[in-house]
Automatic annotation (TrEMBL):
UniProt cross-references to PROSITE patterns, sorted A to Z: GST_CTER (PS50405), GST_NTER (PS50404)
Protein name listed in UniProt: Glutathione S-transferase
Residue ranges of domain GST N-terminal in the record: 1-81
Coiled-coil annotated spans: none
GST C-terminal domain boundaries: 87-201
InterPro entries tied to this protein: Glutathione-S-Trfase_C-like, Glutathione-S-Trfase_C_sf, Glutathione_S-Trfase, Glutathione_S-Trfase_N, GST_C, Thioredoxin-like_sf
Lineage: Bacteria, Pseudomonadati, Pseudomonadota, Gammaproteobacteria, Lysobacterales
Amino acid sequence: MKLYYSPGACSLSPHIALRESGLPFELVRVDLKTKQTEDGRDYRSINPAGYVPLLELDDGHTLSEGPAILQYVADQAPAKHLAPPNGSFERYRLQQWLNFIATELHKNFSPLFRPDTTDEGKQAAVQMLGNRFEVVAAQLAQSPYLLGNELSVADIYLFVVLSWTRYAGIDLAQWPALKAFMERVGSREAVRAALQAEGLA
């Protein structure tokens, strides 16, 4: 398998999941400004959307969108328990969290990284994120991970999105449960290895 990624982007979540899974994979770095892969190919010929992540399977099939890739990776290594079994209620709970992270957290960071966002727009985005962080913090005050006592791919995605707070000037100390979660997940061997591989350690 090949994972097309850009350092620190949301592609870090499937990168961590692949390392947690123990599955063999290769990293291919993408320059999101030039849309070129590190070996000089036009990335849009591989993924017409032009963004990461993209997972390319050994048979040539490709899969885009982080939550879909995360579930695919988890299902290839069921013994690692990165996702509940398909068809179980807990699997739908996982999808609930993946959707929440994608739409309520991930997308609400976008205005903070766009140079054309007004100060008022950035303030509104920070307020919205703070409200959403309250929801996640309430869950993580009850259990170490979103689904209970075991790490899932939803936690990996959450870890990556929350890591952007340091670039956005948001102090997670306001939410002790989130700060503790970041320390807990950040101490994992697979997480440290992925961060080092992307030059983020």
